[in-house]
Amino acid sequence: MDAIRSKIDAIDRQMAALYEQRMALVMTIAEYKYNNNENIFDSEREAAVVEKNLKFLTDSEFENCYIEFLHFIMDQSKRVQSQWIETQKKNNESHGAE
């Protein structure tokens, strides 16, 4: 049991690093969307992300859970983008008032 848990811990460390990398890129996307007045939510893009990434699963038993995981990550990405954009708007308002 300890050996298996140790492997899970190692995967969790990798996932944390990948999560941070993904969210850093999400903030870059937020900046682009802000500067180009684009919407945060793009249903076509989200559907394409799910479809594209399902191809990487080798065990279809996990398909439904993986779809939920992808939607969870995309929901968090939208929240990070919203927060970044709101911060930019507030900063611009405060600088415009000076």
UniProtKB/TrEMBL annotation:
<dbReference type="InterPro" id="IPR002701">
    <property type="entry name" value="CM_II_prokaryot"/>
</dbReference>
<feature type="domain" description="Chorismate mutase">
    <location>
        <begin position="1"/>
        <end position="85"/>
    </location>
</feature>
<dbReference type="InterPro" id="IPR051331">
    <property type="entry name" value="Chorismate_mutase-related"/>
</dbReference>
<protein>
    <submittedName>
        <fullName>Chorismate mutase</fullName>
    </submittedName>
</protein>
<dbReference type="InterPro" id="IPR036263">
    <property type="entry name" value="Chorismate_II_sf"/>
</dbReference>
<keyword id="KW-0413">Isomerase</keyword>
<dbReference type="InterPro" id="IPR036979">
    <property type="entry name" value="CM_dom_sf"/>
</dbReference>
<dbReference type="InterPro" id="IPR011279">
    <property type="entry name" value="Chorismate_mutase_GmP"/>
</dbReference>
<dbReference type="GO" id="GO:0009697">
    <property type="term" value="P:salicylic acid biosynthetic process"/>
</dbReference>
<dbReference type="GO" id="GO:0004106">
    <property type="term" value="F:chorismate mutase activity"/>
</dbReference>
<dbReference type="Pfam" id="PF01817">
    <property type="entry name" value="CM_2"/>
</dbReference>
<dbReference type="GO" id="GO:0046417">
    <property type="term" value="P:chorismate metabolic process"/>
</dbReference>
